[in-house]
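Structure tokens please, single chain.
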Amino acid sequence: MTVKQQLHQQCETFLNKRLEVIQNTISDIEKALTSETKSTAGDKHETGRAMLQLEREKAGQQLAELQKQFLVLNKINISQNHSTIALGSIVYTTQSNYFISTGVGEVVYNDDTFFAISLGSPIARLLVGKTINETFKFRDKEITITKII
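Here you go.
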């Protein structure tokens, strides 16, 4: 399995775990909403339902954001190598290594650590369009791109 296939798979696994957590949260909220019965303390009941509705909305927003991340990840052609940094590029620099994909954070392949970052992240905006041996400044540090896959 290539480095790109492995990193892509790790990102997908991470997103699937988050999806499972969000789906379980939504299911639990739905169960709580249907099991709520009107009590003599009517205001308390209405407040509880309102809080559950807010939690359901929040979980729905998280689900929508996660679906966007899946769409971005699915756009990546893992068999394509890049000479210019774009979505799907693996970038080695003098500071850190990056997988331009979706913002899931740190992923490891063999002994190398990569940061899976989205195109909208500050570092990705600096990297996109650059090629090997180009330099850029990030947080007052000069960083050189050493390899792109």
